[in-house]
Amino acid sequence: MTGKRADGFHNIESIFYPVHFEDVLEILPADSFSFHGHGIPVTGKTSDNLCVKAYELLRQQHDLPAVEMHLLKNIPAGAGLGGGSSDASYTLKLLNEVFDLNIDRPQLEKYAAQLGSDCPFFIANTSAYISGRGEMLEPVDLSLKGYYITIVHPGIHISTREAFANLKPSAADISIKEIIKKPVEQWKDLLRNDFEAYAFQTYPVLTEIKQKLYDAGAIYASMSGSGSAVYGIAEKEISVSLKDFTVWKGKL
User: Fold this and answer.
1) How many CB atoms lie within 10 A of CB 6?
2) Among 94, 106, 151, 152, whose CB has the most other CB atoms within 10 angstroms?
3) Which are the contacts of 143, defined by CB distance < 8 A and separation ≥ 6?
4) Residue 63 class from Cβ within 10 Å (0-12 exposed, 13-18 middle, 19+ buried)?
5) What is each CA distance from 72 to 51, 87, 116, 129, in whole angstroms?
6) Smallest Cα–Cα separation from 84: which of 127, 119, 128, 46?
7) What span, in angstroms and rounded, lies between the C-alpha atoms of 208 and 154?
8) 8-22, 82-96, 119-133: which has the minimum mean pLDDT?
C-alpha cells in the first residue's frame, strides 16, 4: 500500500493471482427479472448485490431482456478473496456471451471498474500487477503451477471499509514486481501485506493460522487482500488442524 489519494481511495501495489475457488453463476432469459442466492447466504438488499448492479449497468447501455439469475455462493464475504468482485465481473462476461453483445475486453474492464476497484482483474482473470486504486492492470509473468495452496477462513468478516480505515501505508524497499521474480521460498522475508498489522492485532487468531500454515510446511503464507482469509503456498499438499474453520485446498 503506497498512500491515500486525493479522491479518498488508496493507491495500492499488489499481485493478483487466480485460484480455482469459485462461485457458480447461471443466467437465463425470463419474462421478468429475478435474482436467487444459494449456498452461503447473500445478505443485504437484492438491488445492492454486485451481480444485479452489473446487470443494471449493462441494461442501461445495451438492449438486454429480463433475466433470471442464480448465484451459488461458495466464497465467503469479508474474506479478501474477491468473491463479490469476481461475481460482478463474470456477470458482465456471461451477459455479453449469452446475449451476443460483442463488448470487447477493454470495454468490459471499464464497466467492471464502475462496479468495484478490483473488478477489472476478473475480466481477464490472469496473474497481474495491480496499481492505482486497483483498476490499473499490468500482466505479469508469474506461474505457480505445480504448487499447492491452502486457504483458511476463520469465519471473521473484515469489511473493506474497516480494513482501509485502519491501514497505515508504507513504501516497500523492493517492488513486488521484482520480488515475485525470486523463488517462492524467498518471499517470506520480502513480500508483506500491509493489511495484516491491523487485522492480526484485532483478530489474534489470524496470527495463529498463519503460523500453523508455516508449521505444516508452507513456504509462503499471508493474509489474502484485506482479510480475513489466510493462505499458504506449499510444494506438496499440507494438512492443518484448525477446528471450526473453513479450509479449502487446491493445486495451482
Assistant:
1) 5
2) 152
3) 127
4) exposed
5) 12, 10, 20, 29
6) 119
7) 11
8) 8-22
**pLDDT tens-place string over residues 13-36:** 899 999 999 999 999 999 999 999
Give, as one character, the DSSP assignment of residue 12.
-
Give the chain's length. Answer: 252
**pTM, rounded to two decimals:** 0.91
Each residue of 136-188: pLDDT tens digit? 899 999 999 999 999 999 999 998 889 888 988 777 788 899 999 999 999 99
177-188, pLDDT tens digit by residue?
Answer: 999 999 999 999
CA 102, CA 86: separation in Å to the nearest integer? 20
Helices (H), 140-189: 160-165, 176-179
Domains and CATH numbers, the chain: 19-124 (3.30.230.10), 143-251 (3.30.70.890)
**CA–CA dist 20, 27 (Å, integer):** 21
Q: Report residue 154 as a C-alpha cell.
A: 476463520
184, 220 contact by CB (below 8 A): yes
